[in-house]
Write a structure and sequence with these properties.
Elements lengths: L2 H27 L14 H9 L2 E5 L17 E6 L4 E5 H6 L1 H17 L7 E4 L19 H14 L2 H10 L3 H8 L3 H11 L1
Parallel strand pairs: 1-3
Antiparallel strand pairs: 2-3, 2-4
Helix pairs in contact: 1-5, 4-5
């Protein structure tokens, strides 16, 4: 491994650890009347609403959002953060088809609110950048902006806290049980187990 590659890898690992710590800090500050810190699944929508004042809306056409960029044919939005309105918009069709993806998208957008919000700037997340259900294709990760990767790491850490993943994995290593308990996809659980076990 070249020295430059080693330094980039070390910075990436440090960045992931900082995001994990940020998510853990948020979890620790959730009032007990919202979540006891132990029961599952983590109530991500209630955290976004009560702790951050963000309204979560399921919207049929996210392209109607103010300032929405043009999409390439075949692209869709999974979610977006309208910071000036204090709203997270989630793709209603994806929510109906894949409820765990809805939770991940909310966590992803909350990650943008916590880590990347700059004034009232809106953030639009294409379905290809919010990937709880599938791994990026070979070489695709280079095309995903760093803030999108960071928001996805945050979402995984918030929805599947490391200490709770370890606790439940030790109780019973049944993969399907873990997915159901944390209300997440198999791909998201697989990546999370790989990251923390």
């Amino acid at each position: 491994m070249k020295a430059g590659s080693g330094r980039r890898l070390a910075r990436k690992i440090d960045g992931v650890q900082q995001i994990e710590q940020r998510a853990e800090g948020i979890i620790e500050q959730v009032p007990s009347w919202i979540w006891d810190g132990e029961s599952l699944p983590v109530p991500v929508e209630e955290i976004a609403d009560t702790c951050y004042g963000l309204l979560v809306r399921d919207v049929a056409d996210l392209g109607t959002a103010p300032g929405c960029p043009e999409l390439e044919p075949g692209q869709t939005f999974s979610g977006l953060l309208l910071a000036d309105r204090g709203e997270i918009w989630v793709n209603a069709e994806e929510s109906r088809q894949w409820p765990p993806r809805r939770r991940f998208t909310i966590g992803h957008e909350l990650g943008h609110w916590v880590m990347h919000r700059s004034g009232d700037r809106s953030l639009f997340c294409r379905s290809t950048t919010v990937q709880p259900d599938e791994q990026p294709e070979q070489g695709a990760s280079a095309e995903i902006p760093d803030i999108e990767q960071e928001a996805s790491v945050f979402a995984a850490a918030l929805l599947m806290p490391a200490h709770l993943i370890r606790r439940e994995y030790e109780r019973d290593r049944d993969f399907n049980r873990l997915c159901e308990l944390f209300n997440c996809s198999g791909a998201a659980m697989g990546r999370r187990l790989h990251a923390v076990i």
